[in-house]
Amino acid sequence: MPAKRPPVPLSRERIIEAALHIADSQGLRRLTMRRLGDALQVEAMAIYHHLPRGKDALMDALAEHVTAVHAEPADSWQESARAWCRASRAALREHPGVLALALTKPPKGRAAIALMEQTEQLSDAGLPDPAQAVRALRAYVFGSVAVEVQRSGWADSPADGAEPWRPPSAGGGSAAADADFEHGLDALLAGLNPRRTEAER
Amino acid sequence: MPAKRPPVPLSRERIIEAALHIADSQGLRRLTMRRLGDALQVEAMAIYHHLPRGKDALMDALAEHVTAVHAEPADSWQESARAWCRASRAALREHPGVLALALTKPPKGRAAIALMEQTEQLSDAGLPDPAQAVRALRAYVFGSVAVEVQRSGWADSPADGAEPWRPPSAGGGSAAADADFEHGLDALLAGLNPRRTEAER
DNA sequence: ACCTGAACACCGTTCAAGT
DNA sequence: ACCTGAACACCGTTCAAGT
C-alpha cells in the first residue's frame, strides 16, 4: 500500500474553492477552519500559511470571489450594464452560502476594481452620474437575489445537496424569477437613461 | 452594602435588545452567548430558558425584529407602499449589525405576517400581481440599504460607537442617500402602476 | 419557574518544531 | 517554504442541581 503524500499542494485558490463548497452545502456557520482543513486533507493550521489573517481573510476572499465579476464592454452602455448585472446575479445565485458576506462586506481588491471599471464604462458613455448609476444597478442585483434566495428557503435547509444550489423548479421557480429580473432590469435601465426624448423636443 | 439581586428579570425582549446592541456595536461575529449573558448580568445558560433553541433562535429573533415592520394603510396603495418601504429602510439602517441576517433569512413569525398584510393592501387596491409587487419593493429596499451600508464601511469598523449607527455625514452622506432612495422608489412605484394611460385610450 | 456550575465537544489562533 | 502537534483562550450546549 503506497504512502499517501498530498498530491496537489495547498493554494489560495483551492482553499477558497473548498470553503465555497462547505458554505454552500452546509451554511456559513459550519464553515470552520478545522472542517476546511479536513476537506483539504490538511491540518487546519496549514491554512494560515496561505491566508495570514486567518478566518477574516478567508471571509474577505469569499466575498471578493463571488462579487468580482468582469464583463466586456458592449456596443451600448445599456448592453454593458445588462451584461455585468446578469453576471453578478449568476455569481451570487451560485453561492447562496456566502450571499450574506457579499451583500454586507465593502468591495475590496478585484471586486473594487471591477466596480471602477463598470463606473468608467458608463462614464465613457456620457451618463451624467455614472457612480450613482452603478450603485442603483448593484442595489437592484443585490435586492433581487436576496429576495429570491430568501424565498427559496435556502437558509432553512442548507444541508440538502452538495451542488451549488437549485431553485425550486416547479411553480414560481427559476424561469419566472429570470423573467422578473430581466423585466425590472429593463425598467431600471430606462429610468437611468438621460431621457433623450425630453432633450430632443 | 446591600446584596445585589437582579433588579429586572430576564425576558425575551431584554435579550433581543442587548443582542442588537452588541451586534451593532461590535459586529455579529462577536455576538456570543457568553458575552450576551455578561451584558445582561446573568450566566449565559440562563438565556436558554427564554430562547430554547439557543443561538439559532436568537438569530431568528433578531432577523424578525429588524424586519417585521407594520405600517397603517394609507389613502392610495402608492402611499401605503411608500410608508412601509420607508419604515423597512429605517429599521434596517438602524441595525447594520444584523443586516446580513435580515437580507438572508426567510421571513418568519411577525415578519411573515407583516408581509402578508402588505400583499393584502396591494391586493385590495386591485393590483394585478400584488405578491410580485411586494417582492419588487422588498428587493428595492434590501438592495439600497445593502449598498448604502456597504459604502459606509460599517463592516470594516464595527467597533467605533455604541449608538445605532450614523452614516458618514459629510460628502455623499445621508441626505443624498435619502434623495436617491425616494427617487428610485418613485420610479419603481410608477413602474408597478397597471399603466392607466394605456388602458384609457 | 428561573437561574447557576460544572462539564463536554468544538472553535480560532499562537508558536515552536519538524521536513 | 510548507506543514504538523501541542497548547491556550474561548465558544455553544447539556444536565443536574440549587432557590
How does this structure look, described?
The structure is a homodimer of 201-residue chains. Chain A contains nine helices and no strands. In chain A, α4 (77-94) packs parallel to α7, α6 (109-124) crosses α7 (130-152) and α7 (130-152) packs antiparallel against α8. Mean pLDDT of chain A is 90; it is low at 1-6 and 197-201. Chain A has 201 residues and is mainly alpha-helical. The interface between A and B is medium-sized, with 31 and 31 residues. The structure holds a DNA duplex (19 and 19 nucleotides).
Class of secondary structure makeup of chain A: mainly alpha
- The CATH H-level superfamily of the largest domain in chain A is Tetracycline Repressor, domain 2
Number of strands of chain A: 0
| Arithmetic mean of pLDDT of chain A | 90
CATH hierarchy: architecture of the largest domain in chain A: Orthogonal Bundle
| Oligomeric organization of the protein chains | homodimer
Specify the CATH class of the largest domain in chain A: Mainly Alpha
Radius of gyration of chain A: 20 Å
Largest protein-protein interface: A-B, 31 and 31 residues
Helix content, binned percent of chain A: 55-70%
Succession of helices and strands of chain A: HHHHHHHHH
Low-confidence stretches of chain A: 1-6, 197-201
Quick one: overall form of chain A?
Answer: globular
